[in-house]
Amino acid sequence: MLRNLFLLAGVSGLAATSQLTQARIALVQDQVAGLLPQVQAQVTGLVPQVQPLPQADPMVAVVDELRRVAEEIAADPRYADDERVGPDEDARQRFREFAKKQLG
After folding, report:
1. Torsion-angle region of residue 82: left (phi > 0), alpha (psi -120 to 50) or beta?
2. Residue 93 and residue 104: Cα distance in Å, rounded?
3. Secondary structure, 3-state, the chain
């Protein structure tokens, strides 16, 4: 019987401890809730306003990418023996002479 009383007292003690713990938790939550606006105001003051990054000109990005790919291909040894693309030196010279005559 004494053992049953101790067990019963232990259960009651646990229930009382649980209620006390819940009361402490509620008190801390209320205190934190009261402090939250103050903390938010202080943090907002500390964090600098973020400025949006300027939008890059898409044309510049395209030209940069094309140049990067062209340089990569030009440096690739697999294409070293390929024929040149574009006018040869004689065609360039003929165009210079034509342009001088036309433009004065």
Report:
1. beta
2. 16
3. CHHHHHHHHHHHHHHHHHHHHHHHHHHHHHHHHHHHHHHHHHHHHHCCCCCCCCCCCHHHHHHHHHHHHHHHHHHCHHHCCCCCCCCCHHHHHHHHHHHHHHHC
pTM for this model (two decimals): 0.32
Amino acid at 85: V
Instruction: Name the amino acid, one letter, at 26.
Output: A
Residue with tokens 């101790």: 6
pLDDT (tens, 9 = 90+) of the chain, 104 residues, equals 445 544 555 545 545 556 767 777 777 677 767 777 776 776 666 666 667 767 778 888 889 999 999 899 888 888 888 887 788 899 999 999 999 999 87
* Sign of the CA dihedral with 39 first, then 41, 46, and 52 last: positive
pLDDT, residue 5, reads 47
Could you tell me if 73 and 79 are in contact, meaning their C-beta atoms sit under 8 angstroms apart? yes
